[in-house]
Write a structure and sequence with these properties.
Strand content of chain B: under 5%
Number of helices of chain A: 25
Radius of gyration of chain A: 24 Å
Oligomer: heterodimer
Number of strands of chain A: 2
Structural class of chain A: mainly alpha
Order of helices and strands of chain A: HHEEHHHHHHHHHHHHHHHHHHHHHHH
Strand content of chain A: under 5%
Shape of chain A: globular
Strand order of the largest sheet of chain B: 4-3-5
Radius of gyration of chain B: 22 Å
Number of domains of chain B: 1
Distance between the termini of chain B: 29 Å
Number of helices of chain B: 20
Amino acid sequence: MSDTPWLTILMVVPLVGALVVAALPKGRDLLAKQVALLTSLVVLALTIVMCAAFEPTGDRFQFAQAYDWIPAFGVQYAVGVDGIALVLIALTAVLVPVVLLASWYDADPEAESTAGVARGAAARTMDSDQAHATSPDIGPLVESAARSGGATAVLERPAQDAANPATVPPAEPARRRSVKTFFALLLVLETMMIGVFAATDVFLFYVFFEAMLIPMYFLIGSYGGPRRSYAAVKFLLYSLVGGLLMLAAVIGLYVVSASQGEGTFAFEQLTELEISTPVQIALFSGFFIAFAIKAPLFPFHTWLPDAGAEAPVGGAVLLVGILDKVGTFGFLRYCLPLFPEASRILGPYVIVLCVIGILYGALLAMGQKDLKRLVSYTSVAHFGFIGLGVFAFTSQAQTGAVLYMVNHGLSTGALFLVIGFLIVRGRSRMTADYSGVANVAPILAGTFLIAGLSSLALPGLSTFISEFLVLIGTYTRYPVAAVLSALGIILAALYILLAYQRTMQGPLRLPSHLGERMRDLNLREVLAVAPLLALMIFLGFYPKPLTDVITPAVDATMQDAGVSDPEPTQGRAAAPTR
Amino acid sequence: MPTDIQSPEIAYGPILPLLIVFGAAVIGVLIEAFAPASKRRTLQIVVAALGLLGALAATISLAGTQELVFAEAIAVDGVSLFLWGTLAVLGLASIFLLSERSLDASGGAVVARASVLPGSREDVQLAEATEVQTEIYPLAMFSLGGMMLFPASNNLLLMFIALEVLSLPLYLMAGLARRRRLLSQEAAVKYFLLGAFASAFFLYGVALLYGYAGSVDLGDVFTATGLAQSNEALLFVGLAMLAVGLLFKVGAVPFQAWTPDVYQGAPTPVTAMMAATTKIAAFGALLRVLYVGFGRTEWDWRPMMWGIAILTMVIGALLAVTQTDVKRMLAYSSVAHTGFILVGVIALSRDGLSGTLFYLLAYGFTTLASFAVVTLVRDSSGEATHLAQWAGLGRKSPLVAGTFAFFLFALAGIPLTSGFMAKYAVFKAGVDEGLTALVVIGLLASAVTAFFYARVVVLMFFSEPAPDGPTVSVPSGYTAGAIALGLAVTVVLGVLPQPVLDLAERASQFVY
């Protein structure tokens, strides 16, 4: 363990990047994108170095720092990571560059059509897709080529439009949206996402938890779909109501700690408090509702389909992939260790909610006509699984739940990205508008399939292991819940495969403006989604690097919560070696 | 009949800030009378600014003073000094806002001749004339002086005088809008009538309390509450009437009815000043009355204040949701904030006191700067305050809209802004004193307030601009400075609140 303030550096780098991006002069959109991507890659590199320095068998919280921030409130700037927080920070660091790359043209679609046409021209001169795919340039840089070839593009576009005016749908009123703001917001969000996982002071956690809403609010509201303002306000209000209830509990926690010595927000000191059961239940409820809204668990989930569907694809990936994980992370980090008795008393009720969520989310997902809403509902089901794992109180299930958080980020992230790519091409989110896409865009269809299979937990892909661990771990304590949840796997196969079949297979039918042709994924898009697919497959066969760091943290959490596995020898041995 | 009334010994040192502000106000009147018209405006600004800076400097030099002066009628203690300093700085910012001339083509937000009938031919001519009138400066200074005296009064009669000194100029100032003059005059009349009623209640309360305690000194009232044989009815009715007067000034429900009309009708710089400074002064007086005079009878007034705090938070938040005018929305939001601050008042502890002081400071700067931003958004007929006109403002001028959005988030209490720290401070004090239910209601009301703040942000950033929407005028250094000051305080108190929290903590000491 070194003295380098890793976590602070990880938070400062994206923030500085965001300020630089925001300070760039107007019109330097490409530079803004490049700076943002570079920043996120630096964060990723730093995270990898930090992960390498993490000692799974060492202290519970590593890279810890603590400074007084607001002594009047007993608040410290205190950061540190255990295994659970570490893997979630790593997930954040992986997803942000992916999202930046995938959202390259989200804020300025015109630039893409320019680049796309120029690229089409380039490909035509090369006369083969092969030549293009193997050419050394990477996606983002093509745009500069497109800029230089802008004249050609401008000349070509009117001709193209004139050729088939009937097929071009009435264009949305042109919305000029600031590119650099979009990328700056994503970087600010990264700072806060890292901060929320790294905080070991409850007040600091709360600050990040709430402040995180604002950049996401602007991402949804400024860059989202047609009902974006409704979705943005709904997202903000749901989260704020939960957050404010949590604030009441945070204050209550401080008052309790002050009554037993010096008031503090430091996590490790708070776990040692003696809190009477009724107070525990009240405080637990405050935290639980906030996290359940965030996660979201049934019946607090109704904001997610709207936010997920209206957010720009990159925002949706981060929303479902990471922001929502703060909820389940909160269960593990705060609800169980701080309020063990309340967790034990209320745990079974939470399990019921989770099982309902698994089945209900899956059923609703099947009925969706909108692809993005479909993926949002699948997430409701998946968060049911994660919640099940957390509140089953076995180390297997909790390890599974943490693994699930990571894997869900990867698989749902990939699914959202691929659907985003499809939507950019077809300008429609409706399942009914697509059919037989695999015929014209095989790479896109293939990626969709892999991401989908991962989402339905096919063995060999990473989600399988986590889902299996959750179910095994739950079965030892709540057999009925485990059996019912297992039905969710069948439903998952249904909703994913049905969606795949309807859109990718069958006779070719595309939105009318595309005619019979659709671009397959280009290099930029492949580069964005490939790391996620690679990680899914790698972790599907070899999850040990994750389980090694997760298991000690889960054990510590279980110990704080004062529970042990029903049959310790079986349970304990199974998790890490799998 | 006592014949030898002894004149009290007067210590001028501790009340120097008051003397400076009132002195500047008197000089302002003399300038109006004797200085040539062309030089008046500059002179007035300089005198007012110097007066307030001097008051600030004198306040700082008095730090640590704890004494009763002027025959124990004025308490110079931590609370008074903290509020004096805050009021001096906010007063300076208000003077700056009043001095803005580059926004309106005809110069300034204040009418040139208030006596001209609205709508008359002369009035139409006057609206386009570049004439300015500078009487508003001494009026503002008298009002600020009254505000500084109000929370420092340890004697209920003096407190009444301070109340009148601060109110009368405000009634006038509310009616001085250059545009939409009927609305402005209506606001002034409403404010005056309701304010006069409230003053009458206050005075009647003072009389009854004199009957109860045999003195109008807060210290004597406190002593009397410890004696068994006193007449409790006089105490309760007197306290209730006193509270009506004070709660009217802070804008608590059910005495809030004037707030939206007056905030909307008054010239926006005056609204900014009223919203920030009057609330601070009135809460200071409320704190002194409840903590010093009635600290022992908390079980008598706490239930009443509970109800008022809940009503204020809930009704303020709910009514704000339905508003379509920026100024009215901010007015109802100020009512909701009054409810939040009341939580700190009711806590009746040192933490509650320091939390309330911190809240007043944070809220004052944020709300003053918010109204300052409102003055910038204009169309051909003056300020464009209808919310629909603000659609798409974020596209047209991201800087101004972004600043306003930041203030709204601060008012909503989002972390990393002063609003969050302030709310945390009073709510923590509340939970500490067992007001958990009140705090939970307060937090839920905060969520409702967040809804309408978020709606304005939606309008500004996520809606398409109207084709003939208002434009954002470029202000002179006066308004820009006031906004920058508000922004700086809002950010600093949100990120590094410790020094000011310390100051509030050390200041939360009453002398009696």
